[in-house]
Amino acid sequence: MTTATVPLKAKDYRSEVKVVWCPGCGDYGVLNSVQKAFAELQLPINNTVAVSGIGCSSRLPYFLKTYGFHSLHGRSLPVGAGIKLGNPDLEVVVFGGDGDGFSIGGGHVPHVVRKNTDLTYVVMDNHIYGLTKGQVSPTSSPGFVATTTPYGAPDTTSVNPLAYVLTFGGTFVAQCFSGNPKQTAEIVKQAIQHKGFSYVNIISPCLTFNKIDTFDFYKDSVAELPEDHDNGDLVQALDKALNPPAGKTYTGIFYKASKPTLIENLRAMNKKVGADKNYDLNKIIDAHRP
Ligand SMILES: Cc1ncc(C[n+]2csc(CCOP(=O)(O)OP(=O)(O)O)c2C)c(N)n1
Ligand code: SF4
Ligand SMILES: [Mg+2]
Q1: 249 with 264, same domain?
Q2: How far is the C-alpha of 101 from the C-alpha of 71, rounded, in Å?
Q3: pTM for the full model?
Q4: Which residue, by CA, sits nearest to atom 1 of ligand 2?
Q5: Rounded to whole angstroms, what are the CA distances from 85 to 18, 24, 78, 194?
Q6: How many domains does the chain have?
Q7: Ligand 1 site, residue 129, Cβ cutoff 6 A
């Protein structure tokens, strides 16, 4: 006799750990949307790993029932890549903030992206360091006044995470707004389904320390990508990321491409050198020794 399995609901992915974000923080919407996406995909709880760095947003894995790895500030991507390479059958989703991902961790992004590493990277972009009480971040606007920049950030430009990931060869690049949970859940779901590296930039306001980039501000400024946007066209994607209409920020899937992933490339190499495991890095290295 076979036992029917009960489908998992969004609430089944929530751990017992008390959520400690400030009331109204944008990251609540992200957590709910992630749980919804996991449930829609019926991700097995014991086969999913949520990895993060350090920051308010990086607490997210605590609140999920999946496996989790709360790593070091800016080091979530190498940890996530290592987990995936160690066991390619796991679903690895990496979470973090704009500071964690594009300040201290910014040097890791290009390499994980250009190798088309098989994982999903979700950044909660609040344009500030929330956990450490309001310092300027690489995605803050030039001139932004924060605790570390009382006279305004002396920068010429800020990091545009979408353009950053697109430039290094990202094969799935999207943006959404945590104030739109339906859209966020759908985009996270598609990012997880994507083969290779997928990047989701979630605009997730910090209402305690960022009084400029607020929910009200974004309610009026986010706009869905135009219907005629071709997300198979890299030039269009870069243009939409860098040049939205004045006062607007686009949301949606900017770019999607199908390319061999890091694990596929390693497996193909493995086949060439006749290694007996899925892929055996030592054998690959030995085969290339002069
Ligand atoms: C090596 C190291 N440097 C600095 C810090 C201090 N620190 C912790 S979180 C953080 C920035 C967090 O900002 P972000 O990644 O944007 O996350 P948010 O809190 O805004 O969600 C910093 C500088 C640290 N924990 N470790
Ligand atoms: S400080 Fe900001 S980012 Fe951190 S929990 Fe509070 S509202 Fe959220
Ligand atoms: Mg931040």
Answers
A1: no
A2: 13
A3: 0.95
A4: 130
A5: 31, 37, 10, 17
A6: 2
A7: yes
